[in-house]
Amino acid sequence: MMSNDFIYVYVNVSRVTTTATPTVLIGQDELTARIAALAQEIRSDLPSGQLHFICVLKGAFLFLGDLIRATEGPVSIDFMACSSYGAATSSSGEVRLTKDLDASIEGRDVIIVEDIVDTGLTLHYLQEILQARGPRTLRTACLLSKPSRRKIDVKVDYIGFTIEDKFVVGYGLDYAEQYRNVPYIGIL
């Protein structure tokens, strides 16, 4: 082989099984307590009527489940899916909607439920398209916030935890579809 020859190797990371155990960043008890406090804060701000939670799939599904169980009063849910990561460990910066809502949000009290706000690009995109659909109120709850990674100023009404710029998994968050079932937030 000559020095100008290259060998390209393509690895489909979605098929790579990882066995590394994440280091605990936020434990189960801390998650439970903080989510209960967020639920009380949300209901305090919106004390009457039905709250409509929109879960951003896939990462926020466990957070949504625990958040609505801890929320007093009537709630309803819907789901959206966006992609800005793929199988990478950092946001691509390009957001695309892969699943839209099943029902109208016009005139409703809506809370976007997001797993992690990193660059802010995905959340900004969602807030813009949902606000255009005429909800009575539109708020955002995120489990994790990484303000040091923000590329755009985005409003987050309810923040579970502010964390440093580490790649985290567990409690619904994944790396190449692995680790979603880890019962805590961990660092790889």
Summarize the helices and strands and which ones pair or pack.
Elements: E1 23-26, H1 28-45, E2 51-57, H2 61-70, E3 75-83, E4 96-99, E5 109-117, H3 121-131, E6 137-145, E7 158-162, E8 168-169, E9 185-187
Parallel strand pairs: 2-3, 2-5, 5-6, 6-7
Antiparallel strand pairs: 1-9, 3-4, 8-9
Question: Please, could you describe this protein's structure?
Answer:
With 188 residues, this protein is α/β, with parallel strands linked by helices. The protein has a single domain, classed as 3-Layer(aba) Sandwich (Rossmann fold), CATH 3.40.50.2020. It has helices at residues 28-45, 61-70, 121-131, and strands at 23-26, 51-57, 75-83, 96-99, 109-117, 137-145, 158-162, 168-169, 185-187. The strands form two sheets. The chain has a six-stranded mixed β-sheet, sandwiched between helices. α1 (28-45) crosses α2. The protein is globular and about 45 Å long. The termini are far apart. Mean pLDDT is 89; it is low at 6-16.
Q: Describe the oligomeric state of these chains in a short phrase.
A: single chain
CATH-derived topology? Rossmann fold
Question: Biggest sheet, strands in spatial order?
Answer: 4-3-2-5-6-7
Q: Sheet with the most strands?
A: 6 strands, mixed
Spatial extent as radius of gyration: 18 Å
> What pattern of helices and strands is seen along the backbone?
EHEHEEEHEEEE
Number of strands: 9
How many domain units? 1
Distance between the termini: 37 Å
Q: Helical content, roughly?
A: 10-25%
